[in-house]
């Protein structure tokens, strides 16, 4: 019974594809990918809509005020209202702007964000596109975001946009390294770049209750934290939303965008957030696996989305809690702390592996991480971080 | 119809010539770099094509060479662009016509 | 326990490593530098104590660890380390005294701007000396010997900005080199004869019967050549001139040089290769040993005399060192090796004490070194005074309580029984008197009487400087426990004999003799200098009583017997003349030749040019013109534009391609 | 299907490349260069070398293209006055193209279709890199490091 519920979507898709029985295979392939894309879009756009309103409501709660609560029950229809507003708003393009680039940037950024969703396993047999190098695909496509952001900044021919774009690219590039390198240990341990394999590798439970998720190993935990922080940066979220810091540069690279294009940027940002979180879940949080064997009767995709929503809540929570960092602080953090720690994670994972993946390995890798962490925190004494502010990143 | 090796080679030849065109006929140094990168990419396409269209060797040589070529091209791009910036700082121009200090 | 010797190399290695690390430190890291140096020294001390303990287990232990350095042909050159009572005792003394000096110099050099460099050199110095002590191969010993020389050069000239210091450093270096020249010749000769430079090598080392047998008569000359080196290092008579000038270095350096490291090396060397000296001895007398004796006697007396007439507190100590070294040499020469070494050790302690005391005085008097300007300091710097007095007693050999006294007795004892002649004995007695005399003079000048110019603003030194003084003073006193004839433990330890306690032996004639002698010396000193520094009858304050009484003699002594001047007139003048002559040769003779050839060349040149002008050029010009045109053509191709070149490359590639395609 | 995909990709790639070579605005040229690279990556996918394709996208779009646009930005004042176009170069390029095409068409041994080949997994590539090609890999790593440092030193501003 639970099996069938678990596979309901897969079966549905198979059933749909039955209509094409007899037509050439590539047609079937195309149609099935179309279905996948459609489902993806529907699900995640809805999620985006809910996310936007929920974020506002939760932030409201955190700041002792009601969030949006007028439109529809509990203001749940707020996103629809927003969408309408965005659609009917005038679409302004600056006179001196580089029209084509200015136009292409949001499209590209949204396309990239959606493409990255394609390789994440959402449930048992529910990976839209099974690529051998799925993780690599994720990053390869994701890295195009920088170009898109730059296009936005350049295209709208505005100094704030340019500065914002520069900042955004600077921080994206600097944090892409830790992001990538924290993925490496998982890839190393699993021995595959394929998300499905990575999820499968975390299937089992120690003593039948503690799941074998990588986040429960020292290196995994460290890597996950690093990964999560880098993810925050990659998706320009507080406390790392320097590129669109209203107080300094109006809205960064989105300054000159209005109406639907702006909405696209907005959506792209959120979808990128979902994608990163999804990847994090896949890599460290055991993908769609249940946290305990007893709970495996719950459909896998529900687990995935439960984890996803937890992570998203953390995103919102951080945004409600933390102030915005300074550019130079952020860069220092990336290069002086995140990167070495990421490398340490690799070493620790290797130690864990060669010490037999058991308790011994667990302790040893813990030791490695602890040692390096203390050493680093001694080396870069944070007291000096309060030095007068220097800008080297947007000159 | 399925593309033969020849077609791929023709495409890569076209890419190569376009790269050459960019490298030869544009004044801006960055264009030259872009052209060179394009030529390298064309060469990589050739490698992959030849690897694909010949009976599979034990080691995926073509792929390997392509990978290394990409890495080296990246290095070359980094250094080249750094050079462009340095030259620009020094001569206030990136127009290769004006950079002829080595004129005989 | 002989396994210790396998780790012996660590003892010199630690300070050397420390010095390397310190050198790499920046000048700002003063604290770390000092700490490193002291730690290195402490570790060395601990290791030395271990080694010492090891030698205590087995009386007369001689553990050897040899290894092959390199092989040329069928010859293998082997080095090694040795651990025997001699080495162990030296190690302990050097490290202990060195440690005191290190600690002292933390205070003394506190204001110096090259603090770190200083400590690097100090560690280097002591490391080199330690290596010298444990070397079991004459070559290895020579290497460390030269390192010691280098270190002394660096340290004496530590205040480079002072030209006098630089000169003194040079003098020390060159003078010792002169000695080392002989030393090295001796080494070569020894190797030539015996084919090994190892001291102890299971019976066929060059100091054992195996090696000595091969030497035969040449042993004497080799020994003498080696003695040249020893004389150079430990300032024996012809080569003693550098030692007083070495006072230009910082006082801790002087202490180190005079007490622990540099000058001790010479005596140690003689003691180490003693078998060479004594080989073929007829009842303990060989010609080489005789030479040693007489040189020692001369040095001792001369230095003691000169010391009487010096004004610089450190120079006096320097000359006393020279004379003490002479004393040791005599003792070695007459066969009292153990006595000599015992005196070397004791001397190490109290001379270091004296020098550090002098350093403390100088420090207190803000760099004043002229004893005539001091006086009455005993009230101002009590600690320094007491310790200094102890050192003075020890040096002048007051019996019963001070280490110096016992060792001196031993030496006199040995000298008295020298079969060849009794003259050295009496001369040594005179030397003892003189020693007591000048020490009394100095201490009266410095600590008693009225306070003169420099004493006004004087102050006691900080604890970091006084502590070493106290330690060394205690050493100077309690070291005598193991020296008394009643219980000659050290003697027994060095010679490897069993030791037994006999109170009776305490009361031997030598005790009373030395009592009398020293007493005489001190008494005379007090009597002469009771009014030193104050105007007495018609003698003005600035004039030394002795000078007042015997101006000529005093001048002779004060000018160090004109030995430096003599060298200037003789050796240096000679070399100067040689230089001038060769310079003249260079200028006129050889230069003239060269010029002549040049002139011939010129003549040829004119001829050929005329030929060229008329005949050949006419043809050549056209060619050159053609070449130039071609060059222009070529250079036109070098437009200096990348794209041109790139295009050329492309065209070339195309040509190649077509060629291949056409051939295929 | 393959043919169709091929034609589409080829058109896109070549068009983008041509644009990159000829467009007046440097920025547009750089962007279309990126598009051309995506096309090439697509060719790699078509040829069953996904990994290389991904690597190409990753390195070129993620790094090189960004580098290029940054450089354009840093030398922006100069972009305006680079209008010249050298027709000689165009002729040479055309000649080279002709020669290549001619020789490719001339050699009949190239008119072959792809043999069947087992899919090349990333694992195989990794194994190859770590076994047979480990030294080249190290060398490339060294080269990249050297290039990185060199580039840094080149663009370092004299701070005095």
Q: Care to count the β-strands of chain A? A: 2
Mean pLDDT across all amino acids of chain B: 84
Oligomer: heterotetramer
Rg of chain A, Å, rounded: 22 Å
Judged by helices, strands and strand pairing, the structural class of chain B is mainly alpha
Structural class, from helix and strand content of chain A? Answer: mainly alpha
Strand content of chain A: under 5%
Spans of at least 5 consecutive residues with low confidence of chain A: none
Count of individual beta strands of chain B: 0
Shape of chain A: globular
Number of helices of chain B: 3
What's a quick, concise take on this entry?
The complex is a heterotetramer of chains A (395), B (104), C (664) and D (160). Chain A is an all-alpha fold and 395 residues long. Chain A has 14 helices and two strands, in the order αααααααααββααααα.
Report on this structure.
The complex is a heterotetramer of chains A (395), B (104), C (664) and D (160). Chain A has helices spanning 2-6, 8-18, 25-62, 78-88, 99-117, 134-142, 144-155, 159-190, 195-201, 218-234, 259-283, 300-321, 327-354, 359-379; strands spanning 205-206, 210-211. With 395 residues, chain A is mostly helical. Chain A is globular. With 104 residues, chain B is mostly helical. Chain B has 3 helices and no strands. In chain B, helix 1 (5-25) runs antiparallel to helix 2 (29-53) and helix 2 runs antiparallel to helix 3. Chain B is elongated, with a radius of gyration of 17 Å. Chain C has 664 residues and is mostly helical. In chain C, strand 1 and strand 2 form a beta hairpin. Chains in contact: A-D, B-C, B-D, C-D. Chains B and D meet through helix 1, helix 2 and helix 3 of B and helix 1, helix 2, helix 3, helix 4 and helix 5 of D.
What labels would you give this structure?
heterotetramer, B: 104 residues, mainly alpha, 3 helices, 74% helix, 0% strand, C: 664 residues, two-stranded antiparallel ribbon, 26 helices, 71% helix, 3% strand, globular
